[in-house]
Design a protein that fits this description.
The complex is a heterodimer. Chain A is mainly α. Chain A has one domain. Chain A is 79% helix and 2% strand. Chain A has a two-stranded antiparallel ribbon with strand order 1-2. The radius of gyration of chain A is 19 Å and the shape is globular. Chain B is of the alpha/beta class. Chain B has 2 domains: 220 residues, Rossmann fold; 68 residues, Alpha-Beta Plaits. Chain B has a 6-stranded mixed beta sheet with strand order 6-7-8-3-9-10, sandwiched between helices. Chain B is elongated and about 75 Å long. In chain B, 37% of the residues are buried. The chains are: A mainly alpha, B alpha/beta. The interface between A and B is medium-sized, with 24 and 34 residues.
């Protein structure tokens, strides 16, 4: 293993975020605060509670997931797309490192950044509501798995994309709708039956539900199913990445 | 001769069907400077990219210091440094950080003293904390060289190192190349500037249309293919080539003020004596005489034209 290469890629990627620390942290904090004012304050005052949980509190896990997913994907996809775009990827390709070592460096850094952002969002949320976490271990597990899985997913998108439009298309056209329709701001049981059935095909439902359960023990699906789903998605991403590795997909001509 | 890189039957066909390398065989000797010459699109960069692992080959093998560059890529690649043709460089990291990054990427332990030495030899030390985007094109080129040398490679590829580079940097670069050669580093460079190859290379390989046309010791090549020119300056211009000189390869130049005789250096008899005697017999009086050897450029142009 070329640990030195993993280390320098990881550090370089973290430094990139550090140099733009304000943007990195300000945008998730500001958007979370806005959601709290609009959903928690304005709308939440009319909804009161869902399954015994105050509405402003109920949306915290969903909001965190929304930001985690979009940040993981954009961080990781940009991290690998940009060197491809500028051509600096030549150096990684000509270095004595394996694809998986590069992957650990890039995805590890992206996941770390998302994790930090997740923690910052939860801290921001705790300024607005009296946050409680029933199962801290499960909460951490879902947080870490989500960061890693979606950073991996972002890495795949970054490899696949050959234009800035493609880089944006998956987060905007796929992830945002899935998160909004995935019970981030409501319980699935509030939907008409037919929409409930459709919703169960949305993988984000399982993420949000499991994450929310770790806070309030309120869930749309069993927490083990949630865990199973995210692990399934993690391994699916790993499988795609291994295939890309074997074929040198979009990296090598 | 001890080969440090062996390219065997290497072919590369891109997805769009373009065949950039056709069955290339090339032995690069340890410690030499090899100049890879060829017109645009000849396959120079593809060959370098395939050896360094940036492009996968369609068929054939490459051994770097005895290690296969695909199956034993760690051993092979750790020996190689590459300065790419384009100024592909980051934007926001500092000069020092990007060079240290390259060293780490190649698996070498941090060595601030060595990095300081490289940066100083490339006149980059006072810019070490500058962001890359603030640098001029020439400085970026220097940074790329520093990055390529950061892990102390024993083989260095320079892809068009002097394209768009000022005189000072060009001199610095050749001084560095000489130093590296003295340390035993093998250097492969591609260039359009044939005088450069002529000046610095030990051997010359000419590539065109994805095929290696020749690989030869530079001096031998010049001798073998070299033509010499004898220029005879006349005191008073001649209106036409005198009768006695028509059997020789002689032309008038400079409005008849000069007679130019072209001959092959490798021929047994150069014919110079006969030409001079014929000039004498024609009653022309001489002002000056000079000879010049055809350059590598002429040889190169001839070769490529012949193939076309």
């Amino acid at each position: 293993m070329n640990f030195s290469a993993i280390r320098v890629i990881y550090i370089a990627e973290m430094m990139r975020a550090w140099n733009t620390l304000f943007q990195t942290l300000a945008s998730p904090v500001i958007s979370t605060s806005l959601y709290f004012v609009v959903f928690g304050g304005a709308i939440g005052s009319r909804i009161q509670s869902i399954e015994g949980v105050e509405y402003a509190l109920f949306i915290v896990p969903g909001l965190t997931m929304l930001t985690l997913l979009t940040q993981s994907i954009s961080n990781a996809s940009f991290g690998i797309y940009f060197p491809k775009f500028t051509g600096t990827i030549y150096e990684v390709l000509s270095a004595p490192i394996s694809f998986f070592e590069a992957l650990i460096g890039y995805v590890g850094a992206a996941a770390t950044k998302s994790f930090i952002i997740g923690v910052v969002i939860l801290l921001t949320a705790s300024l607005f509501v009296d946050l409680r976490i029933e199962h801290p271990f499960w909460m951490l597990l879902f947080l870490v798995l989500t960061c890693v899985t979606f950073s991996l997913f972002g890495f795949i998108i970054g490899l696949w994309a050959d234009s800035f439009e493609k880089l944006q298309i998956v987060p905007i056209l796929v992830i945002t709708p899935l998160v909004f329709l995935g019970g981030s701001f409501y319980s699935i049981s509030m939907l008409p039956p037919i929409w409930q059935t459709i919703t169960y095909f949305n993988p984000v439902v399982y993420l949000v539900s499991g994450f929310r359960w770790s806070f309030f023990e309120v869930a749309d699906v069993n927490v083990w199913i949630s865990l199973g789903m995210i692990l399934f998605f993690l391994f699916a991403c790993l499988a795609v990445v291994s295939w890309m590795f074997k074929t040198g997909y979009k990296l090598k001509e | 001769m001890d080969s440090v890189i062996s390219v065997n039957a290497l072919s590369k066909t891109y997805d769009n069907g373009f065949s950039a390398l056709k069955n290339v065989n090339l032995e690069i000797h340890r410690g030499e400077i090899l100049a890879l010459l060829g017109p645009n699109g000849a396959g120079k960069t593809t060959l370098i990219s395939t050896i360094t692992g940036i492009v996968s080959s369609t068929s054939g093998t490459v051994l770097v210091d005895g290690y296969d560059n695909v199956t034993q890529y760690r051993e092979a690649r750790s020996r190689v440094g590459l300065v790419p043709q384009e100024l592909t460089i980051g934007a926001f990291e500092s000069v020092y950080a990007t060079v240290a990054f390259s060293r780490g990427l190649f698996g070498s332990k941090p060595n601030p003293a060595y990095i300081e030495k490289i940066l100083k030899s490339l006149s980059l030390w006072d810019k070490k904390d500058d962001q890359l985007r603030m640098l001029s094109g020439g400085m970026k080129r220097r940074v790329l060289i520093a990055k390529a040398l950061s892990h102390e490679p024993t083989i260095l590829f320079l892809d068009e190192p002097t394209a768009g580079v000022d005189v000072e940097l060009r001199k610095d670069m050749w001084r560095l190349v000489e130093e590296l050669r003295a340390d035993g580093v093998t250097i492969i460079l591609t260039t359009h500037y044939i005088e450069e190859a002529e000046e610095i290379a030990d051997r010359v390989a000419v590539i065109n249309g994805g095929e290696i046309l020749l690989v030869e010791d530079k001096a031998e090549l010049m001798q073998k293919l070299g033509k010499k020119e004898l220029r005879v300056e006349l005191k008073s211009p001649a209106a036409s080539i005198p009768e006695g000189l028509k059997e020789f390869d002689v032309a008038l130049a400079e409005d008849g003020n000069q007679l130019v005789y072209t001959y092959q250096t490798n021929q047994e008899s150069t014919g110079i004596t006969a030409v001079l005697q014929a000039i004498n017999a024609a009653g022309l009086s001489l002002k000056d005489i000079q000879t010049s050897q055809s350059s590598l450029e002429d040889i190169f142009v001839d070769l490529v034209r012949e193939q076309a």
